[in-house]
Amino acid sequence: MPDVSRLFVLQTDESNSVLGAILLQEDDYRIKKHIAFVSRKLLSREEHYSTIERECFAIVWSVTKFQESLYGTEFIVETDHHPLQYLGKAQFRNGRLMRWAVAWQPYRFLLKAVHGRENVGADCLIATNWRILFSREIDLVFLAFSLRRLCVHYENATFI
């Protein structure tokens, strides 16, 4: 159960066809505990977004999905796409990115770029071929226990 007095951490990731995010909180021992998982298949028009647009969309979409927990609190967003750190500081000519940057304004969060190996949880959600499993319009929210085995398996797996 989430503790609203603690800081939330939102990990996001994307692939060419799927968005994934995990809502976490650190316990007293600074270990991140999973609260909820969310994943969504991209629409065909969204699959044509550039990488930075898909990564930004993953953040906007996941913040919206978890807005009941995140709105009005400070939280950290962890992404493995480093250029997004500069979204609020740089001047982009991309209208889509600028609109999403404006959509972020009601929220108080720190955007933190992490190495891909530190973003394993969200990466785990997009690693499976969700296209086979889910239809276009469905997005799913998972409780922590339902995906824990998959994430542990993914962390310990060796890929060629």
Description:
The model is unreliable at 129-160 (pLDDT under 50). 31% of the residues are buried. The protein has a six-stranded mixed β-sheet with strand order 5-4-1-2-3-6, with helices on both faces. It is globular and about 40 Å long. It has a single domain, classed as 2-Layer Sandwich (Nucleotidyltransferase, domain 5), CATH 3.30.420.10. It is 33% helix and 27% strand. The N and C termini lie far apart (37 Å). It is α/β, with parallel strands linked by helices. Helix 1 runs parallel beside helix 3. It contains six helices and six strands.
Features:
27% strand; six-stranded mixed beta sheet; Nucleotidyltransferase, domain 5; 6 helices
Mind sketching the topology for me?
Blueprint: E1 8-14, E2 18-26, E3 32-41, H1 51-65, H2 67-70, E4 74-79, H3 95-103, E5 108-113, H4 120-127, H5 130-133, E6 139-143, H6 144-156
Parallel strand pairs: 1-4, 4-5
Antiparallel strand pairs: 1-2, 2-3, 3-6
